[in-house]
Amino acid sequence: MKFLDEYRDEILAGKVxxxxxxxxxxxxxxxxxxxxxxxTIVKYGIDRLLPNEIELVHGPGCPVCVTSLEMIDKxxxxxxxxxxxxxxFGDMLRVPGSDGDLLVLKSRGADIRVVxxxxxxxxxxxxxxxxxxxxxxxxxxxxxxxxxxSVFQAKKQGIENFSILVSHVLVPPSIASILQSPLNxxxxxxxxxxxxxxxxxxxxxxxxxxxRVPIVITGFEPLDILQGVLMTVRQLEAGTYExxxxxxxVVQRDGNRVAQNLVNEVFEVCDRKWRGVGSIPKSGYKLRxxxxxxxxxxxxxxxxxxxxxxxxxxxxLVLKGVKKPHDCPAFGKQCxxxxxxxxxxxxxxxxxxxxxxxxxxxxKREEAVAL
Length: 371
What we know:
Blueprint: H1 10-23, E1 28-32, H2 35-43, H3 46-49, E2 54-58, H4 63-66, H5 69-79, E3 84-88, H6 102-107, E4 112-114, H7 118-127, E5 132-139, H8 144-157, E6 162-168, H9 171-180, E7 188-192, H10 193-199, H11 205-211, E8 215-218, H12 222-238, E9 243-245, H13 257-266, E10 267-274, E11 278-287, H14 296-300, H15 315-319, H16 351-357, H17 360-370
Parallel strand pairs: 1-2, 1-7, 3-4, 3-5, 5-6, 7-8, 8-9
Antiparallel strand pairs: 10-11
């Protein structure tokens, strides 16, 4: 495919791998931030092309995976109300809460609809003036502009029966949280290409300087990933810690100022809980007071909800890069895409789902049989 095949060229990939092998003199642990990068790494076996000294661990880069259990349960409570039309992207419907998922609620009669854009919800709200239409607004900074626009337009057009349940999370604070953890092993990052398309990468420069780690903003094709690894290892071997941009065909340092201005007009930064990680200060967005009439959290005044994660699930450790999916005793057994115990098995960008999709669970069984 034009403009795509060149980023999957085997000969070029081999040359980049050879250069990584040539310059690597020490063991290094790198973390890719985006779930889309994890998917590419596992699909193309990039982690297995690298020298043994280079270990890739998978970060909390899947927005579906890190949406807190409390927020999932809150969404379920709102979706079950008889006067609500609850709208969501399709990948959230199977994320397990404390008691089932949105698909289960839909089968019980809840009016739950899959949409492809939050703007679609405005049409639904206009067509159903006697119902309360709620959109589940999750995601990193990448999806924040579209969600902000839906609220901005609802206020401008006087659509009073539309609101959003906000669960946005921000990448820079999560990287800082990982680096501050006593369990941290990460020495360099492949930064989030999609997020930086919107936000730019200047926010990562203080993190690189403070924690003395290289951060390379990286794309999503195999050659993007390999080049990002090469750039990161070069810095590690040289003892430098800067932010570099491997993805200049899409990302600029200052990002998209128009999108940022819209987001800042509608949202403000707040503390946010991350599933499996806990509360991270100033790591999320919430609606500003001026848009409170479209804040589902305020409108429905959901109380504190008792939550319960499966005891066997280690998705939190996977999201922190401490463990890998095949370290979980439930992986590929009690926990599968058809019956997920944790959010990392639900989304296509989740590390557990990626490992399962490309047969890493079968390899574990084959090793056991061989022994």
